[in-house]
Fold Putative DNA repair protein.
Amino acid sequence: MKNIEIPTQFNEVRVSYKSSNYTKESKKINASSDIYNLLKEFFSEDIDHHEFFILIGLNRANKITLVKKISEGGISGTVADPKIIFQYALLTNCSNIILAHNHPSGSIQPSNSDISLTKKLKEAGGLLDIQVLDHLIITADNYFSFADEGLIN
């Protein structure tokens, strides 16, 4: 039998959590329009140029604890990796999350991949006890809310 050396050191993850004043003072999210108004500023002048995927983390009182750009892509798409999304949600103790991305085309209609991704993330969140409250598609002039349209159950 061959003698195999097993490494004694592996990659290490350290978690540090520090609450900020922003979390304590942040506004409670009551409607999809609250998120749209917040994100219009976040996307600013690039909203019509290329796609971004954003994660908004909320505590149990639905106050914002996290706004994180998950990915930045091209004109017709960006990658929203569920592992990365839930890594941030877990490490920042989110109870609920809202997903958002822009459509540079100006269309607010969800694509089949938008619908599929939303369903996949909703199911994953259910396993982790992190509720996906909404997924918004943002343009400079309008937005589409999966929750408002009954597409998140």
Notes: The chain has a mean pLDDT of 85. The domain at 29-145 is CATH 3.40.140.10 (Cytidine Deaminase; domain 2). The beta strands are 52-58, 64-72, 96-102, 131-138, 143-145. The CA atoms of residues 41 and 47 lie 10 Å apart.
